[in-house]
Amino acid sequence: MLTTRFAILTLIFALITVNLFSQLNNIYSIVPKPFSLNTNGERFAITNQLRVSVTGHPDHRIYANASRFVRRMAERTGIFLDEQGFVTAKDTNSASSVLIVIKRPGKLQLREDESYFIQINSKQVQVRAETDLGAMHALETLMQLVSADSSGYYLPGLTINDKPRFTWRGLLLDPALHFLPVNVIKRTLDGMAAVKLNVLHLTLCNDQGFRFESKIFPRLQQLASDGNFYTQEQIKDIVNYASERGIRVVPEVVVPAHTTAILVAYPELATLKKEYTLQRYFGVFDPVLDPTNEKVYTFLSKLFTEVAGLFPDQVFHIGGDENTGKDWNNSRQIRTYMRANGIDSAAALQTLFNKKILPVITKNKKTMMGWDEIFQPGLPEDVIIQSWRGKQAFYESVKAGHDAVLSNGYYIDLIQPASYHYLNDPQPDDADISAKQAQHILGGEATMWGEHVTPETVDSRIWPRTAAIAERLWSEKDVRDVDDMYRRLDIVSLQLEQLGLCHLSFKNTMLRRLCNGYDTRALQALVDVIEPLKIYERNQGDTMYTIFSPYTKLADVATPDQAVPRIFTKQVDDFLQTGDSTLETEIKQQLLKWQNNHIAFLTLLRNSPVLQEAEPLSLHLSEIAATALEAIDLIQRHETAGKQWVQQKEMLLETAKEQGGRCELQVVAPIQKLVNAVSGDAETSSTESTWLVSTRQ
Amino acid sequence: MLTTRFAILTLIFALITVNLFSQLNNIYSIVPKPFSLNTNGERFAITNQLRVSVTGHPDHRIYANASRFVRRMAERTGIFLDEQGFVTAKDTNSASSVLIVIKRPGKLQLREDESYFIQINSKQVQVRAETDLGAMHALETLMQLVSADSSGYYLPGLTINDKPRFTWRGLLLDPALHFLPVNVIKRTLDGMAAVKLNVLHLTLCNDQGFRFESKIFPRLQQLASDGNFYTQEQIKDIVNYASERGIRVVPEVVVPAHTTAILVAYPELATLKKEYTLQRYFGVFDPVLDPTNEKVYTFLSKLFTEVAGLFPDQVFHIGGDENTGKDWNNSRQIRTYMRANGIDSAAALQTLFNKKILPVITKNKKTMMGWDEIFQPGLPEDVIIQSWRGKQAFYESVKAGHDAVLSNGYYIDLIQPASYHYLNDPQPDDADISAKQAQHILGGEATMWGEHVTPETVDSRIWPRTAAIAERLWSEKDVRDVDDMYRRLDIVSLQLEQLGLCHLSFKNTMLRRLCNGYDTRALQALVDVIEPLKIYERNQGDTMYTIFSPYTKLADVATPDQAVPRIFTKQVDDFLQTGDSTLETEIKQQLLKWQNNHIAFLTLLRNSPVLQEAEPLSLHLSEIAATALEAIDLIQRHETAGKQWVQQKEMLLETAKEQGGRCELQVVAPIQKLVNAVSGDAETSSTESTWLVSTRQ
């Protein structure tokens, strides 16, 4: 009977779901993984009696944070915790169900104590921390620990001791290239706090625009922002929002290159004297400040002082990257100057420039920071170096006595998987530096360069991968289990969404736009197995983006680090090792779906010309899926394929690697393995599993 | 073979999809429906050669608007229109592919000309309008007309003449009850512009909080806002954003009741002298200003003048609703005053109060507006009345010479279907008013009162239903086809989403939170057939909300005006009329899904206690679905049911009407019809279809 069949299927589905849910309630799901965790078998029941108290000597920020904790707990559990609208300095009852004990106010500065201790038993949740910064980290951990079963919501009984490995755990946001409204910055800060990131690096200008309201040099936002900039009130709002969450905000005003925007407003500061217009493309450009012009230093002195006044952080970033040196070399005046002063290279001239702006920074009681191009002979030691071009430069600057932050390997704009970033350690065992030198390693920073992100897509490029980087920078060096990281990342991804981040929800909206309708299944099936081109491949070929280009196409709905190909790859690997028949069924089901998806995709295509660039990907997916099914068939029949078949399929697979709509299929490699398994090639068969070989006996 | 079956199913799916897509490209999908539309069979191809020019004498706002039009066109079609970054006053080429001709700058005021003419042929898209306001409406119409087929994107050849029926087409947003950040206001304004709404009514305060930064009376935001208020810079930003889209912003500072927030800051202005704290509940409360205290008028004079300075609109709303009169009646001083001045009721005293604040408004060159409680004898004619309590009061105020805006019947917070609001006409044929009096009907306003909405859910309560109200207020009176309205509403809903509105995308996020996982199907199936309690039922019983309550539960993921019950009801009606076997199959498939859903729901429940309140709904859905299947079975076998069966099922159906989690099942009525059809009751069988009766012969 139809009913019975449905019931059985539902039961099977239910069993699978139960299994999934036990994982979701696993207490070992915290990201970043804490220093130590010990369970005690009890549980603290979350009820409408939950009250939070704070004792000790905290910074005032703990109260708003604890109030938000209560609200988030209510939103998460549906329990009305309305009796405690706010946690205030009056809430000091040490018998409170949730007690936070803080020794002293925390300072938003390098190397501040962010440690915390949590103890949960059936009676109380206790948080103890040196500073409110640690206490706020504890509250985030508690949010991640919320569990449930049929008896209700609870926190599992345990004790946690936790502290970060590195003091600088940053994320760079880049409103210079694509402007990001204040609400996007704020929700990003909420996400950062959830995974204990503590530095927001904000690029305030670049060739494409100046994003800061200057009252001293108003031509900057009037002429060089297209109306997209933060007012001073908004800057204060952002800085305050971050501070309330224990996050430092480091401003960057990049000089002397990447200054087209500044030169649109004040061309007299340029090396090459002409009229400048905002750069609409993305890349590296020649406009550069004139380091021999005293007016430049006067200007920067005033501007930097103005910016420094609005950003209370100790660190002031002056960029310093990607100076082509071309306008300097083409300037007779500058060549003359260099000869007269014994400066033999653009790099040396830039070092002179950096040394001349350093006093501006120090007079504002700030520490200067720049990209690794500024790490040159003669650069004073008390400049922080941010390394992006390689580990070698990173360690050299550390050895030379500079505090340093690693971004190389954390370039999340390059669309690489979380595992790649996760395994990228700022201080691996083979790093050739002493323990003393290693003290200069402040930590690392993920960089969300703004070339190809908009407010609609930026969350999907940051999350959840950046949570893996957050763990790399917080947790101990030996925490490197990639599978477990992905398991926990899936859970954290949902928690991040609850903070208002759109990395999951944006996708259906974009799919609907691309399909011009509600039924997006055929496109979703394709999007699940593609990723945007990686590294710098996207902005090439016949598609050169400008700031006006639409980011609502295939490469924008596609996201990095897709799960379906990752899971499929593992299934194929396991199947080729073991020949497991359940795996075989699952793999074949998936392949059938892909094989048959193209028909439905073609129907979508009829009314969505924007999807034409995806057609080759969809066709290739169908073809290589059919190929894989044939390969599995051969494996089942203990046969190897004919030479012609192999040749044909090799060509298919090669074609299937081609990009479409600036994206690539991610399932070619596992299907290649299936083809290899039946190709009868001596070379590949030597790596085959015993099982595979045995099938052909 | 599995493959063939899949292929056939896919083909069937494809055919259904094609049918759906032809509907989506129907040129008669504009909301609001234009005054007249005539096709000419041509088409204008949208290519990367698209350029927009503007001639005539427009207000500057057309340029930013036209620039956004180009960007939106690029995002919609994926075509790179980067060559035209901005439309500027230099773009005046009358041979441009898109030409906008504007006679004169439009003023953001009542009764301004908002008409437009569109002509589309293969060579050019021409927009002609008296004002830029009309031209901007035309651009929104053009965005809705974007069509596509395999040859590419195009605009269908046609001419449109269009103009609004009413001049006041408003939406009230209420950040007083639940604060709404600036980005929520802005995306709402984008949605309003898309459906040609032109007034945003903003409530700046209520008992729960004061949401406006006063520099004259800073205690207001310091003591009475919980930190949630708009700075003056933000107000200017909102007003400017609206103005750029042809939308007027009408501020409301409600007096003399609903003033708890003001009295928290300035208790000396109260009737009842005591200390006030912010009201945390929702409802009608007693705190009220003292109309006999001159200080009140001094205060309001300064405050109103400050607010008026930031809101350039002609109209200033002073609220005036829901004054219980209790504190007045309990005040000996006021009773004495009333006796001494011959004032015999609270309403009369409030009229005196209104007359005393009117000069403040008029000295600021504004027109006063208030809710219909202020429509009392003695109220000057030049006060605009906003009617919410009924049509009678509405027509009375119109007859008395007041300009009037209708909100009764447009209370979108009451969770009624779009059809209800759509058929609610400000000037129906049976309205007992003359043509001259009818000139006082300015139009209408949808009200999004903030009791039960948050930034996460507010879009789903406004959209897409408010688009139906927008049509009621713009299009001609005889445009009343409900089915066609719903068809077009489905399409417009997708377009609204593309503007950043979250009414569709919020749901999956909330489902995932409630399920604490990725698989939400069982909950979605239930949510598809429930709606939050309507009218004022939600905030009753054992669930009294405060501003601290979580809005992340069943009644928040559930949305008004569900499509699945509506479609199912129609299917059942049609089936009972015709006995069509395809319908029968579809209905049974749906019923089987509902019947079997409860098992999967129970699995979700095991780890999501927050869903316990939904369990009865899920169980009842399963039970009445089983009931309906039994009824259809009886119909198939040409039998009537036994008396006991009928009694049993009537009880089941009655129970199934009960609320769960402040929601109700919406499929009880159609299933009741199926039970009636086999109940053999003489009364019901008289209304049966010939087909049904014939089945039993």
TrEMBL record, chains A, B:
Stated name of the protein: Family 20 glycosylhydrolase
Boundaries of every Beta-hexosaminidase bacterial type N-terminal domain copy: 28-162
Similarity comment: Belongs to the glycosyl hydrolase 20 family.
Highest taxon of source: Bacteria
Positions of the Glycoside hydrolase family 20 catalytic domain: 166-476
Keywords noted in UniProt: Glycosidase, Hydrolase
InterPro entries: Beta_hexosaminidase_sua/sub, GH, Glyco_hydro_20_cat, Hex-like_dom2, HEX_bac_N
Coiled-coil residues: none
